[in-house]
Write a structure and sequence with these properties.
The longest helix has 29 residues, at 133-161. This protein has helices at 20-30, 69-74, 78-89, 133-161, 178-184, 191-194, 209-219, and strands spanning 4-5, 11-15, 34-40, 47-52, 57-61, 94-101, 104-111, 114-122, 171-176, 222-227. The two termini are 23 Å apart. Helix content is 35%, strand content 27%. The strands form 2 sheets. A 6-stranded antiparallel β-sheet has the order 1-2-10-5-4-3, covered by helices on one side.
């Protein structure tokens, strides 16, 4: 569980859905118990903030918000609020995943953590050249053409695997290279998929089947901004 510095102080950790409740227990043990839990933010960006006895806070960003507001507001204790969020994170959702980079793509359909269907492929895209002048322009045009072919192949994979089941998806999660995904959003025929696109954006290298199989660990995780007491 790697930690990354957070803007404004503290650091980010990502905790798997299966481990979230245990992580909160450990947080409480280390910091003098849980003293409060406040669910805030917009429905699309909900955050459960946990306060502790020594002043440490854990801002838990809700995956696939909104969490059940009735249950969360009815939680009489911080621990009960944690249990509500843990149960929400563990819901078995039907999620489409589309990973795109210049050199490859992966489209997958998940039910919970189970990969139901997929298509993975690669396309050759020439690297940059140090040549100048006319040669550089020729290489650039060739690279752009190869990239368009790669994106077209990714769109075909999405159309084959995900578009027929778009109406049944709880979410579409994208990842890979942000510019490549942005280029693919111009594919209007994939509109029913883009309408279901949700965070997080998954940081993966050239998409491979192994990368695709690991995606549920990332899109089901709870992102937490942990701020220790001064």
């Amino acid at each position: 569980m790697a930690a990354r510095p957070a803007a404004g102080g503290g650091f980010w950790v990502e905790v798997g859905a299966e481990r979230f409740a245990r992580w909160c227990d450990g947080f409480a043990d280390r910091h003098g118990g849980l003293t409060g839990a406040d669910l805030g933010g917009e429905p699309e960006t909900q955050v459960l903030e946990l306060a502790s006895g020594d002043g440490a806070t854990a801002e838990c960003h809700v995956p696939f918000p909104p969490v059940d507001l009735v249950s969360a507001s009815a939680a009489s204790t911080p621990q009960a609020a944690v249990e509500v969020l843990a149960a929400h994170a563990l819901i078995e959702r039907r999620v489409g995943v589309l990973l795109v980079r210049r050199g490859g793509y992966a489209a997958g359909l998940f039910s919970g953590t189970q990969l139901l269907d997929h298509k993975v492929g690669s396309r050759y895209v020439q690297g940059k050249t140090k040549a100048g002048g006319w040669s550089q322009q020729r290489y650039a045009r060739r690279r752009e053409g190869q990239a368009r072919e790669a994106y077209a192949a990714a769109a075909e994979a999405a159309a084959k695997i995900l578009l027929p089941v778009a109406d049944s998806l709880d979410a579409l999660v994208t990842g890979g290279d942000a510019a490549a995904v942005a280029a693919l959003r111009t594919e209007t025929r994939l509109g029913p998929l883009w309408a279901r696109e949700r965070s997080p954006f998954l940081n993966v290298g050239d998409p491979r089947l192994d990368d695709l199989r690991q995606c549920p660990q990332m899109f089901r995780a709870v992102r937490i901004r942990l701020v220790e007491p001064a």
